[in-house]
């Protein structure tokens, strides 16, 4: 990672309240190197410029770090090129991270990343999300279920059966009907965090909990 890239990453992380130690930066750098190699063979991301990948995807994937559990399983639905699941695993390699991806080639990429970085507590499942909810290794076990590129209502329908009783579903998007969409899945919006990426692009993090787990006053 160049000095300029490291500064961009560190500044973006600090804006989100995340401090990256040298070991974490090293893991992220190895991930970007693998992504560059694979992107020459198959189209994992539409954006291939390394600086833009850091600004638009890597930094964005750091936004949920504050909401990660102290322990337990984190399930990333539709992991694709590893945003946000691999990034979260690089920051918290102690966590059990399950990457759910339906396509074979991205899943192969994720498995190579896991082996190479390495991220021994992370697993990649080649599975449609609808099938993953039937997997006994995942069903009702997740402390956090997260997705970055799935329409909100569809995501919440998939996340609900994966969540442990007091688990959280984190949606990385900016819908207008967040509360209405959640109600049909036995979930309720617990927190909303608005932020901006380098360059000013707006983002919103929506954290949902099962209705019974939400305190009487929610802000």
Secondary-structure map with pairings?
Elements: H1 3-15, H2 22-41, H3 50-61, E1 73-77, H4 85-91, E2 96-101, H5 104-116, E3 122-126, H6 129-132, E4 142-147, H7 152-159, E5 163-172, H8 178-183, E6 187-196, E7 202-210
Parallel strand pairs: 1-2, 1-4, 2-3, 4-5
Antiparallel strand pairs: 5-7, 6-7
Mind telling me the CATH class of one domain? Alpha Beta
How far apart the termini lie comes to 39 Å
Gyration radius, in Å: 16 Å
What is the CATH third-level topology name of one domain?
Answer: Rossmann fold
Give the mean pLDDT.
91
Please tell me the CATH architecture of one domain by its name. 3-Layer(aba) Sandwich
Share of residues in strands: 15-25%
> What general form does the structure show?
globular
DSSP summary, beta strand count: 7
The assigned structural class equals alpha/beta
Residue windows where pLDDT falls under 50 for at least 5 positions: none
Number of helices: 8
Helicity range of the residues?
25-40%
* Strand order in the largest sheet: 3-2-1-4-5-7-6
Outline the structure in words.
It is globular and about 50 Å long. Strand 4, helix 7 and strand 5 (about 165-170) form a beta-alpha-beta unit. The chain has a domain at about 60-215: 3-Layer(aba) Sandwich (Rossmann fold), CATH 3.40.50. Helices cover about 40% and strands about 25% of the residues. Strands 3-2-1-4-5-7-6 form a 7-stranded mixed β-sheet, with helices on both faces. Helix 2 (about 20-40) runs antiparallel to helix 4. With about 220 residues, the protein is of the alpha/beta class. The mean pLDDT is about 90. The termini are far apart.
């Amino acid at each position: 990672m160049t000095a300029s890239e490291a500064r961009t990453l560190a500044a973006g992380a600090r804006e989100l309240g995340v401090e990256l130690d040298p070991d974490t930066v090293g893991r992220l750098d190895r991930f970007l190197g693998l992504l560059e190699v694979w992107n020459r063979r198959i189209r994992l991301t539409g954006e291939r410029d390394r600086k833009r990948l850091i600004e638009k995807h890597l930094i964005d994937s750091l936004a949920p770090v504050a909401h990660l559990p102290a322990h337990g399983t984190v399930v990333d639905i539709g992991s694709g090129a590893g945003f946000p699941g691999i990034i979260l695993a690089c920051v918290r390699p102690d966590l059990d991270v399950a990457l759910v991806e339906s396509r074979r080639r991205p899943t192969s990429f994720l498995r190579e990343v896991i082996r190479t970085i390495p991220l021994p507590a992370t697993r990649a499942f080649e599975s449609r999300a609808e099938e993953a909810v039937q997997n006994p290794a995942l069903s009702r076990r997740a402390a956090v279920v997260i997705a970055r590129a799935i329409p909100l209502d569809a995501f919440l329908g998939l996340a609900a059966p994966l969540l442990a009783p007091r688990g959280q579903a984190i949606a990385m998007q900016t819908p207008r009907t967040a509360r209405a969409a959640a109600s049909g899945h036995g979930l309720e919006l617990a927190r909303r965090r608005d932020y901006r990426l380098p360059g000013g692009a707006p983002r919103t993090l929506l954290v949902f909990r099962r209705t019974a787990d939400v305190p009487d006053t929610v802000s």
